[in-house]
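Below is a complete specimen:
___
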Amino acid sequence: MNSLIPILHKTNVVGTLNMLGLAKRVGARFLLTSTSEVYGDPLQHPQVETYWGNVNPIGVRSCYDEGKRTAETLTMDYHRGAGVEVRIARIFNTYGPRMCIDDGRVVSNFVAQALRKEPLTVYGDGKQTRSFQYVSDLVEGLMRLMEGEHVGPFNLGNPGEFTMLELAQVVQETIDPNAKIEFRPNTEDDPHKRKPDISKAKELLGWEPKVPLRKGLPMMVTDFSQRIFGDHKERGSSTSST
């Protein structure tokens, strides 16, 4: 069994419980960074905060999906039962500089693979969709949520929707038009569609994302390129100067 599975679930549940207890003791406002994964493989599109989701409770992804759903439950229990001030954000796919290069997320995967001249790995037929928000937009949304008076939950994401194939093509356009795409069998319980309805955040937080994928991706590529090749380039320039 993957050793990360129980850690993910325990972090979401026990970690949230511990931090809620701390917030109660010191009178702090508590922010839960939840996830669009609470919607599972949604039957409603786009997803609004009132949608309860479609999650497999015993699937390979359930440690994360159900862990976050339980974290939301605990957060609202402490809010209603113990008077803890809470805020809940449901974060959709986010990308940007300083991400872990090999964290397994689709944007960082594609960018790292293209820079390394490796095939871009697309799972299934590549028609499943996701929505990608740049990190600065997310930070702005979280700040507005914490500084405001509304508990949430709030969808924080960019409604711009891309299939995995379209994302791969944007990465090709940005890094290497000749990058190859390699198809692999799809993973279990992979959501078919994912797109946030951000009407609530627009109305109550005055927030909406500003950075489109084609503007944000090059900034991430610059950072990844420096970290993947930076040491090599520095060694090469110092060698040539000696």
